[in-house]
Amino acid sequence: MQLPEDCDADKTSIVSPHFPVNENIWQLLAAIPEGKVASYGQLARLGGLGRGARQVGRILRELPTDSALPWHRVVTAQGRIALPPGSRAAQLQRSRLLAEGIEFSAGGVIPMGKFGWNP
Description:
- This protein is mainly alpha-helical.
- It has one domain: Winged helix-like DNA-binding domain superfamily/Winged helix DNA-binding domain (Arc Repressor Mutant, subunit A), CATH 1.10.10.
- The protein has helices spanning 21-31, 40-46, 53-61, 88-99, 112-115, and strands at residues 38-39, 74-75.
- Helix 2 (40-46) crosses helix 3 (53-61).
- The longest helix is centred in the C-terminal third of the chain and has 12 residues, at 88-99.
- It is globular.
């Protein structure tokens, strides 16, 4: 994926009529800083999809396996990993988040007030 040079990933409103929906979501995903997480719904709203949290999930599922985008920084609005518990993908996501300093409660929930991204 090649983003234009004038792309500013730090903007709070990154929606662009010149990008397809997927690219808007990719831009937002790239903007989530290390040590922070965003919810699927938050990316949907910021990406102009309204209540399209599931659509964001589909977009992330379609990322190439070698993508450098931080897909692991996207969780449910409740701060949970959305992947099937115990799956390799869920274990990978959890280990990447832990490596970035993100904490989980004993019940596997990320405190969104502390680790949630606020662009």
